[in-house]
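User: Assemble these into one structure.

Assistant: Restating your components, then the assembled model:
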Amino acid sequence: MNTANRLAPYMFMAPAAVIMGLCLLYPLGYMIYGSFLDWNPSQSIGEADFVGFKNYINLFFDPAFRESLGVTLTFAVSVVIAELVIGVGLALLLDRNIRGMSLLRTLFILPMMIAPVVVGLMWRYMYHPTVGTFNRFLKSIGLEGVDWLGQNALLSVIIADIWQWTPFIFILSLAALQSLPRSALEAARIDGATNWQQIVYIKIPLMMPVLIVTALLRLIDAFKVLEVILVMTEGGPGLSTEIVALRISRTATEFRELGTAAAMSNYLLILLLLLTVAMFAFTRFQDARAARLARQVQEEG
Amino acid sequence: MAEIRLEKLVKRYGSVEVLHGIELEMADNEFTVLVGPSGCGKSTTLRMIAGLESVSSGEIYVDGRPISHLDPKDRGLAMVFQDYALYPHMDVAGNISFALRLQKRPKPEIQAKVKEVAEVVGLTDFLHRKPAALSGGQRQRVAMARALAKDSGIFLFDEPLSNLDAKLRGQMRAELAVMRQTVQKNMIYVTHDQIEAMTLADRIVVMHGGYIQQQGSPEELFKRPANKFVAGFLGSPPMNFLEAELVRDADRTFVQGASFKLEVPEDKAATLAATTRQVIVGIRPSDLNFSADAEDQVALDLKVRVSEYIGAQSVLLCACGQDDVTVELKSETPIALGETLRFAVRPEGIHLFDRSTERAL
């Protein structure tokens, strides 16, 4: 009787646990196991040779993979910084009551709602060297056209990503701004803070917790970006825009090296895991600090 | 240090006018309390002086200089907010010194000032705490210290005590009264609490519906209210109001209600216009004394319904015919519920108001 009672909770949890195991852990385990194999798509997983950490070691010294990792890092860090600056800046500018503000806000977040493939196609046409919007405009005002997706490919994909994802940071910053204590800002005005000083000393510091979480979320997302770049440049020219996600897909399909592709995925996974852990650590740290302060007040009665 | 004058101050939100031409003068070093029920325009007036609300028309003068076009920071004032409005990411010292740091004052001067005002409000041990680690009373002290540190001539308070619990509110009120004696500033204090107004003010300004109802010293307002609103707003428990008619009989004047007839003292009767008939009689609960053998024309017969014991004093809720009358008296007075007792009215305690205009007569 007693044993049955103690087992009851686990019985109830079992279906969920089984589904999670099947849907989440099985593919993950499959990939991790696959990363230790020299595995061709024509073989079943059982026929592949076990090669231990060879895939990982090869990748570590592979200049193409390293370059791809470098491109990803450059891409992710640049887009997140640029999006933060532009998104927060826009939020600071638009945090006021102007007629038609709600319509304007809706317009601003439209790019985020467009499917990535569509975004990629759209920008690819706009960047087109002869018939694209940008070069036609430049030529119409008498300037030289820019070789957008050629020599400046990485910059071009960064611009496209900024266009699509700045609204994300914009909405979250605006929400953070509007939840700031009004009276603290009024107190700052009376204390003599100019608009700029209010931003630097009051608004930004108070928005910081939201901004840090938002930046980490965007960073995690930027590391996994694939479709937009696939459609716009396919990683080219050369390896100049070949981000890791793209290289993984090419390794698996073009180079037919499933083991290596799996190992690459794991490298990316570890990187993202570190970022996620950092984000959780940050929020836990925030909560713990708030709890500590509240306890301090209570103890003093 | 600063003399403030409001001239025909008007505030409109769209087409709704909430302040209708406020005229007010506040002398240097005066403690002015704006008091009134919520929505009477007292906070709006204060926020217009602070520069947090724009002025629709009219002007605010400080020492004869118009200031309504200036930014809050250029008006030379300090303000304490209802919700303290502390900067949550700065510690107590940071909060207190923020204005001074913006002014780029030298570091030693800032440190000395922080130390000085922290001592005044008793926060010396908490300088390195964040606001989240402070209790409500301590936060209010920080807000006070932050305003003090600025050394401005005008001090604005927007309901500073209403977020505190009753006991702490009484304590902080007393501390404010003490601080008031040492700090020489022009202070404007907004509250809906008439006790705060009575205890702190040099001058009370009673507001209602966007108009100033009356201004003057607490005693003046309490003893000679200009209208029924002021009479009913100041004083606790509030004044009793009874409808009555003026009856003139030979050379004596009476007010006659459904179940009472009181004589109006001669000096008061002399000032009444001959045409006035319909009046409201106002009697404060403390102006009624238990007195079984008082004469008819100076007394009310009241049926005691409820007795509220508050310690030394008791408040009796009584019936005078159809009307309710509150009486305040010493608890040792022997009173039984349900009895009809005679209470003498102090002659100077009879206030008369015109029934249509509600103005004092």
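Chain A has 13 helices and two strands.
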